[in-house]
TrEMBL record:
<feature type="region of interest" description="Disordered">
    <location>
        <begin position="436"/>
        <end position="533"/>
    </location>
</feature>
<feature type="region of interest" description="Disordered">
    <location>
        <begin position="550"/>
        <end position="642"/>
    </location>
</feature>
<dbReference type="InterPro" id="IPR002159">
    <property type="entry name" value="CD36_fam"/>
</dbReference>
<dbReference type="InterPro" id="IPR005429">
    <property type="entry name" value="LimpII"/>
</dbReference>
<feature type="compositionally biased region" description="Low complexity">
    <location>
        <begin position="562"/>
        <end position="572"/>
    </location>
</feature>
<feature type="compositionally biased region" description="Basic residues">
    <location>
        <begin position="436"/>
        <end position="473"/>
    </location>
</feature>
<dbReference type="GO" id="GO:0006622">
    <property type="term" value="P:protein targeting to lysosome"/>
</dbReference>
<protein>
    <recommendedName>
        <fullName>Scavenger receptor class B, member 2a</fullName>
    </recommendedName>
</protein>
<dbReference type="GO" id="GO:0005044">
    <property type="term" value="F:scavenger receptor activity"/>
</dbReference>
<keyword id="KW-0472">Membrane</keyword>
<feature type="compositionally biased region" description="Pro residues">
    <location>
        <begin position="491"/>
        <end position="517"/>
    </location>
</feature>
<feature type="transmembrane region" description="Helical">
    <location>
        <begin position="7"/>
        <end position="31"/>
    </location>
</feature>
<dbReference type="GO" id="GO:0016020">
    <property type="term" value="C:membrane"/>
</dbReference>
<keyword id="KW-0325">Glycoprotein</keyword>
<dbReference type="GO" id="GO:0005764">
    <property type="term" value="C:lysosome"/>
</dbReference>
<feature type="compositionally biased region" description="Pro residues">
    <location>
        <begin position="583"/>
        <end position="642"/>
    </location>
</feature>
<keyword id="KW-0812">Transmembrane</keyword>
């Protein structure tokens, strides 16, 4: 009997515990559901949402680090050997990228925006002076012109070749880093410009990109569906492109890389439209990571993104014309670069076919330095750390009629790569995602008693014990709260005074984003494991080196791009004016499609970050209503966190 009673008692205890556990789990699930429901409503691009201001004026700084490949044995390459390349860099610029002309459309479900970018040189984060350091690299105008002339009669090619010889135009050129980036008057393009004015006479990888934007975007605000938050509806008035050979390849999918929808899970693919790559790419979950104590999901482009169509048939649409495909790890973007033989890849041909790595000397691909990835806070979708890396290459091959190319082997020749460093501070992340509760108790003495009751949108509970008491209840994660009512009662003399004060705004100190500094004195080195190469051209490493006695023409506009690129703004330490140059009045509806220029040497379009690439061999294609320039080659970042 006693044994039976013990069994019943034990069963009762276990059942009670299971009941308590079940209730706790149920309450936790209900609470989590409430939080998620609140997040879906709060994380939108509407004027009253907290996310809107940080999307419009991103608080964390963005740095563009440019690395170049200096050619140390040009004669060997011209005689049929391998080119030996020496990486130099970084040359770092602070990038400012506010959203401008933001206009809400279709009852607030979409918004129009421009994203102009301007650049300020940061000497303390650079390996040298770009206006002094010399670089020997492939003469991109030479290659672009000879590639275009390959379809013309042999006689014309021979005449052009004789002209090049007469003025000393070679397959390799030596210029300052500043000229290569921001532009110089090229003798070959100047001659073409005299005959065809629509062809720009200035060449630079970042020519006309200071103070200009990468296109006209219409985004979904997420007001109707949280999964659409930040997604692109149209780019330059287009919902799909026409460059590629399949409908799937021409689709404009995902966001621009700045934001992602909340409540991200490990099983989904995230899409980013990279205008500089002329395509959308997808990222898959890699692993859980921790960034400054914040749990995050790491997403990165899987190996099939740039895989050969033989191994990944979905990439067949990126072969233009059909069947004209390169190997794994590279993407030919000539179709959206007005025919210029431009190829993009990850730095040092990371994840590419070994034949590209071995075609030149000096490539050392590795995951740590050359992988592109995003670390995202899964609840809010906020990027905590972004590392976007990409490389600009050009196809160099023999062209009949040009004796200078008769011995060379066809090579995908590396020019430079970019690290887009986009660190996020813990304070900025916390501003968007808090779900914790704490209690504070304070004691004060007053000569009268009053009671205040406030309701806030936070998950904090504060109890303040004075001779008066404050109770704050925070059900969610928004940092702007307005008291619903305020009752103030005085017991002194024989009267009662009750009033309701006007609403006020209370921002917790930890939610304030860091201010944008006017200089770079606050910068800190990257974390361990993310070292920077600061290898500038030295006497021992390269044929043309600093102070080598070469007489080069003075850079055209030493401190920035040509005025045609936008207002003149120094590329030195002072930040750009707050007012932004040449604001445009956006239309109330998305702009119409922009016709493509017919000239192979006329300007072409651009996009980043994130994965951002944009160096083009020739001037960018004009966009309506002002010229649109391509981004520097896929912006890529060297992971750095402040």
């Amino acid at each position: 009997m006693a044994r039976r009673s013990c069994a019943i008692y034990a069963t009762g205890i276990v059942s009670a515990h299971l009941l308590v556990v079940g209730i706790v789990l149920l309450v936790a699930q209900v609470f989590q559901t409430m939080i998620h429901s609140r997040l879906k409503k709060e994380i939108t691009l509407t004027e009253k949402s907290q996310m809107f201001e940080s999307w419009k004026n991103p608080p964390p700084p963005v740095y563009m680090e440019y690395y170049f490949f200096n050619v140390t044995n040009p004669e060997v390459f011209l005689n049929g050997g391998k080119a030996a390349l020496k990486q130099i860099g970084p040359y770092t610029y602070r990038e400012y990228r506010p959203r401008e002309n933001v206009t809400f459309l279709e009852n607030g479900t979409k918004l129009f925006a421009l994203n102009p970018k301007s650049f300020v040189f940061v000497p303390e984060k650079s390996c040298g002076d770009p206006e002094v350091d010399l670089l020997r690299t492939i003469n991109i105008p030479f290659v672009a012109v000879t590639n275009e002339l390959n379809q013309y009669p042999f006689l014309l090619r021979s005449l052009v070749s004789m002209f090049m010889n007469s003025v000393g135009i070679e397959l390799f050129m030596t210029r300052t880093v500043h000229e290569i980036l921001w532009g110089f008057k090229d003798p070959l393009l100047s001659r073409i410009h005299a005959m065809r004015p629509e062809v720009d006479d200035t060449f630079g990888l970042m020519w006309k990109k200071n103070g200009t934007h990468e296109g006209e975007f219409v985004f979904y605000t997420g007001e109707q569906n949280y999964m659409d938050y930040g997604k692109i509806d149209t780019w330059n008035g287009l919902r799909e492109m026409s460059w590629w050979s399949s409908n799937q390849s021409n689709m404009i999918n995902g966001t621009d890389g700045a934001v992602f929808h909340p409540l991200i899970n490990r099983n989904e693919l995230l899409y980013i439209f990279a205008a500089d790559l002329c395509r959308s790419i997808h990222l898959g979950y890699v692993k859980d990571v921790e960034v400054k104590g914040i749990q995050a999901f790491r997403f990165a482009p899987p190996g099939d993104v740039l895989m050969n169509p033989t191994d990944n048939p979905a990439n067949q649409g990126f072969c233009v014309p059909a069947g004209d495909c390169l190997g794994t790890g590279v993407l030919k973007v000539s179709v959206c670069r007005e025919g210029a033989p431009i190829v993009v890849s990850f730095p040092h041909f990371y994840q590419a076919d070994p034949k590209y790595i071995n075609a030149v000397e000096g490539m050392t691909p590795n995951k740590e330095d050359h992988e592109t990835y995003l670390d995202l806070q899964p609840t809010s979708g906020v990027p905590i750390r972004a590392c976007k890396r990409a490389q600009l290459n050009i196809i160099v091959k023999r062209v009949k009629g040009f004796p200078k190319t008769k011995l060379i082997h066809e090579t995908i020749f590396p020019i430079m790569f970019v690290n887009e460093v986009r660190p996020q501070t813990a304070a900025f992340v916390n501003m968007h995602t808090h779900t914790h509760t704490h209690t504070h108790t304070h004691t004060h003495t007053h000569t009268h008693t009053h009671t205040h009751t406030h309701t806030h949108t936070h998950t904090h509970t504060h109890t303040h014990t004075h001779t008066h008491t404050h109770t704050h209840t925070h059900p969610s994660t928004t940092h702007t709260h307005t008291p619903l009512h305020h009752t103030h009662t005085h017991t002194p003399p024989p009267h009662t005074h009750t009033h309701t004060p006007p609403p006020h705004t209370h921002l917790p100190p930890t939610s304030t984003p860091p201010p944008l500094p006017s200089d770079s004195s606050h910068l800190t080195p990257p974390p361990d494991g993310h070292h920077r190469r600061r290898l500038c051209v030295s006497d021992a490493d390269a044929a043309p080196h600093r102070h080598a006695g070469l007489q080069l023409p003075a850079p055209h506009h030493r401190h920035g791009p040509h005025p045609a690129a936008g207002p003149r703004r120094p590329l030195l330490q002072e930040p750009p004016e707050k007012g932004r140059p040449r604001p445009l009045s956006p239309p109330s509806v998305p702009p119409p499609p922009v016709p493509r220029p017919t000239s192979p040497l006329s300007p072409a379009p651009s996009p980043l970050s994130p994965l951002p690439l944009s160096p083009l061999p020739l001037s960018p294609r004009p966009l309506s209503p002002r010229p649109l320039s391509p981004l520097p080659l896929p912006p890529t970042p060297l992971c750095m966190l402040h």
